[in-house]
Specification:
By secondary structure, the protein is of the alpha+beta class. It has 4 helices and 4 strands; from the N terminus they run ααααββββ.
Length: 113
């Protein structure tokens, strides 16, 4: 008993179609097989399709290199002074060779430099 086996010719056709049309997925190949009068399940088509090896994902270093002109780096820190006051500093840098902006808070007197 059990499921009927898929004929070798149909398996070969599925592999051939998936190699010839790498952008086609199982639903498309399944539809084309139905047009030819071959009645197989879509899951069967997916099982016998050629599995393409995906390229490795880009590394963090590659990402940073590719997007260095669009990136903004920011840092926020607090500087205690000799008079026991706190200076709040926000530093922002835009792009690979971007200019550095320092925003300081002097206890209510705001300065942007």
């Amino acid at each position: 008993m059990g499921r009927p086996t898929v004929p070798v010719a149909v398996r070969t056709l599925i592999r051939t179609m998936s190699k010839a049309n790498p952008l086609w997925g199982a639903p498309r190949i399944h539809g084309e097989l139905l047009k030819l009068g071959i009645d197989v399940c879509q899951a069967t088509v997916a099982k016998y399709m050629v599995r393409w090896r995906q390229p490795p994902s880009q590394t963090w270093r590659t990402f940073l290199t590719n997007h260095k002109t669009q990136l903004t780096a920011a840092d926020f820190f607090v500087v205690p002074t000799v008079t026991c006051r706190l200076l709040f500093v926000l530093v922002m840098r835009r792009g690979a060779r971007g200019r550095v902006r320092v925003c300081r808070d002097h206890g209510g007197r705001h300065s942007v430099g």
